[in-house]
Amino acid sequence: MSDAIADAKRALRAELRERRNLLSDRARETAADGIRQQLDALIENHGATSISCFLSTSTEPGTRPFLTEALARGIRVLLPVTRADGLLDWVVATSDGDVVEGMFGLPEPVGEVLSPIAVNDVDLLIVPAAAVGRDGMRLGWGRGYYDKTLGSMEHCPPVYAVVFDTEILDDVPRDLHDQPVTGVVTPTQTLLLAPAAH
Q: Where are the beta strands (DSSP E) in 48-123?
């Protein structure tokens, strides 16, 4: 990665992180409810019965209300567990599942750990992001886990990044290893961005 791209990503991530930290609790609750509604509709539209998702942190658009409902409806949900080698293992979510702090201080599920290839069986991937460009390029938080996962999948299903409305940008800094997403979900809308990306 060139220094200019790395610097641009670092600067943009810092700005986005700061913006997220300034959101009020009320704004976060409203966003989580919007995300729940948008993701419910997305699953319905895709007829998805098995998905991957992530446990949101306190500053991310909230996925937990959605996860609770998805599990109650019988959707199979895989949640990521970080590994030291840069790959993601997966745990099948349960309604009473415990959560621990993972390698980077992020919430991770406790349960039987499945290998990185477990995600090949899902109908839909719901991934975190710092921002998404209108061309479908996703800016992650810099550890490369999802780029590696998406880049290694033989038959990648639709991939939707979850961000706040202000985090859909005209474009984001990108490097060769960065993977595009199919669309983006915000508290107020779901946009199809790059249907032929995978």
A: 50-52, 76-82, 88-92, 99-101, 107-109, 113-114
